[in-house]
Amino acid sequence: TIKIIDSIKIDIYSREHLPPHFHAIYAEHEELIEIGSLETIVGKLPSSQRKKVMKWAKERNEFLLENFKRLNPKL
């Protein structure tokens, strides 16, 4: 977990796949979000939680990409 925003966990895992992305997890909901475009790859968060995640991620795109690359150096 790299961040928790109002009970929403933001995770980036090692041994992942492209495109670079992060996981946003809230209760039983999970959304994989592409770093950069912030488009949904799969899953869905409730609207109010998704807005919080998008606001946070827009301001930290470089941070997210650096962490993805650090955890997945072979990609």
Topology:
Blueprint: E1 3-5, E2 8-11, E3 21-26, E4 29-34, E5 40-43, H1 47-58, H2 61-71
Antiparallel strand pairs: 1-2, 2-3, 3-4, 4-5
Can you walk me through this structure?
InterPro entries: DUF4160. It comes from marine sediment metagenome. It holds the Pfam family DUF4160. 20% of the residues are buried. The protein has helices at 47-58, 61-71; strands at residues 3-5, 8-11, 21-26, 29-34, 40-43. Strands 1-2-3-4-5 form a 5-stranded antiparallel β-sheet. The two termini are 20 Å apart. The protein has one domain (3-71). It is α+β, with helices and mostly antiparallel strands.
Short overview:
This protein has 75 residues and is an alpha+beta fold. It has one domain.
Beta-strand content: 25-35%
Q: Which segments are poorly predicted (pLDDT under 50) over 5 or more consecutive residues?
A: none
Give the helices and strands as they follow along the chain: EEEEEHH
Please work out how many helical segments DSSP would assign: 2
What does the radius of gyration come to?
11 Å
Number of strands: 5
Based on secondary structure, the structural category is alpha+beta
Protein name: DUF4160 domain-containing protein
Organism: marine sediment metagenome
Pfam families: DUF4160 (PF13711)
